Amino acid sequence: MILFIGMGICLVLLGYFVGAVWLGPDGGTAGVVLAVAIWVILSLVSYFSGDSILLAVSKARPVSHDVHPQLFNVVEEMKIAANLPVMPKVYIIDDPAPNAFATGRKLENCSVAVTAGLLGRLNRDELQGVVAHEMSHIANRDVMLMALAGVMLGGIVIISQVFLRSLWFSSGSSRRFSGGGKGGGQAQMVVAIAAIALAILTPIMARLLYFAISRKREYLADASAARLTRYPEGLASALEKISDSNLDLAPANKATAPMYIVNPLKAKGKRLSDLTSTHPPITERVKILRAMMSGGAGYTDYQEAYFRVKGKGAMIIPGSGLKQGERVEIRKPSVEDKKEPGRKKGMREVGDIMRAVNKYAFLSCACGLKIKVPPDFKKPEIACPRCSRKIEIPIAELAAVAAATEALSPGGPVKEATRAATTAAAAKAAVRAGASPQQVYTRKGKGWESFSCNCGRLIQISPGFQSPNIRCQDCGSIIDIKN
Amino acid sequence: MAFGLILLGIVVLVVLFVIGMYNSLVRLRNQVKNAWSQIDVQLKRRHDLIPNLVETAKGYMRHERETLENITQARSRAMGAGSVGERSQAEGELSGALGRFMLVVENYPDLKANQNFLALQEELTSTENKIGFARQSYNDQVLFYNNKIQMFPSSVVAGMFNFKQEEFFEIEDAAEREVPKVQFS
What we know:
The structure holds two protein chains of two kinds.
Chain A: H1 2-23, H2 27-48, H3 52-57, E1 60-62, H4 69-81, E2 89-93, E3 100-106, E4 109-115, H5 116-121, H6 124-139, H7 142-169, H8 185-229, H9 232-244, H10 282-291, H11 299-310, H12 319-322, H13 343-357, E5 361-364, E6 370-373, E7 381-383, E8 390-392, H14 395-406, H15 425-435, E9 439-442, E10 449-452, E11 458-461, E12 469-471, E13 478-482
Parallel strand pairs in A: 2-4, 9-13
Antiparallel strand pairs in A: 1-2, 3-4, 5-6, 7-8, 10-11, 12-13
Helix pairs in contact in A: 1-2, 1-7, 1-8, 2-7, 4-6, 6-8, 6-9, 7-8, 8-9, 9-10, 10-11, 14-15
Chain B: H1 2-58, H2 65-80, H3 84-105, H4 109-113, H5 115-150, H6 154-161, H7 174-177
Helix pairs in contact in B: 1-2, 1-5, 1-6, 2-3
């Protein structure tokens, strides 16, 4: 808060002196008013422009509970822990670099986005830590704060640029610096010099303050996440995993960088964090979180750990957080923590999710291979790449799947399904929706044979199987058996 | 004359302060109530999940009829319980039954490979987490509210308008504290 006020002072000072130079000695106040007015107008503009632009730019795709139940559940858990009024919208970003961000100026209308690369690498506790950190940004109103601070910085830069340019263009004329009152020449010179000095210095000061605010709020979000999850180690090991990956996040730039969990811009050879970086160094964040494990998970514990690690340092937690005086115990890791998803399997699962979101259809071959068919595939059948069996592509299924995944966009209702919700669920749902034609299987011989139902279930019939049809146990549809 | 104006100004300020404090007390109290109802929502969700779970498991666990029966009965008891104390205990027993069930599941690799079951297990884990977080959130809100009531100067306003302290949600069933954890070593 102090830093923010510092930026405000920069703005006000600049406004005062520039006003004094342009409008005469009484123009100072007018200058202040004008500067503040610019800031207010720009803030209102950014407030009403919404966050859909950001989401579109970062290739974020909306997901519902069925597409990725674990992510959705984790977001819902954190929504309950943080006591938010409404569930945030959940998005997956189609990018192999692990990162996450959250936006939302109003608590009722916020979003959380996570990259596919993140989902493939983290286990449940770590994912929970990351989501908690992002949602803490929303709950602590960091988005609003950074937007206001950013606008202030912009305003300062604009005013100082305009002022300096105006000087340069009229540097020949000395009319500005003479007259304007009795004996005011000397004072006018001082004011003018002060204004020029401020115009050069305040943008630099404001920039430094802006990045300092950003870093401080990152620490605060870490503290809030540790407190919400009651498990600082989750976020700590997630940050470690993220920093190990050296992929750059494609659509990020310096403007959108503050909102990600980890600095998405990694210039080779430069120190990852300096005075102009929006995020504190990851090793420090990890150290502080791990230092908490011996104490508790509350705000006071984070503040103590911070002092221990940094040796000195600022108060991260605002007074209102510290005076609650809560004793918060750390919980045990969840059971899944012991099982690390194998990297390949994890990435493949995430690839599947992205394809499901992008309207691919999933077919199961009898040899066990899952075949992923793009939505614009025109032929009526496809040969399995592994065993060369021919599999019919139910065109009606594809269309139904495309329609089902359309419902996942923000306009559609969020389904709270408790039944099976894997990536094949989209195809299964299509089958259940009644779009399936009658399936017929023609026996190839007299021995054991296996084939797949349209819903994905493998069905096997023995040599002694006599009935004219068989019922699929997963979806209930009846398949005719012809000899 | 000026003295009268200053006095008026002070009175106005004090009134504004009191209004502000009253409003935040009301807000905090409503958040406590909301958090309490969230716990109920998650408990109910767990009730809804269980029949599906038992159905899926029945096909694979033919010899574990007792365990499954326990769960179904514990669920009925939890749904029928009346007072807060009764419900708390019944829900604790249900958590215990589910925990034992999860232990038994380890002996049935077929069941563990079933996609349906995996999805249900994720839902169940998540619902247990949500119940925990709902309780945690409730306790947090109670702490904020009680702090506000007890600390000066809002304690004065609280006294004026009769705001009462709320109770924390303690886990009464000792057995529930020891939810069995499955160890993969």
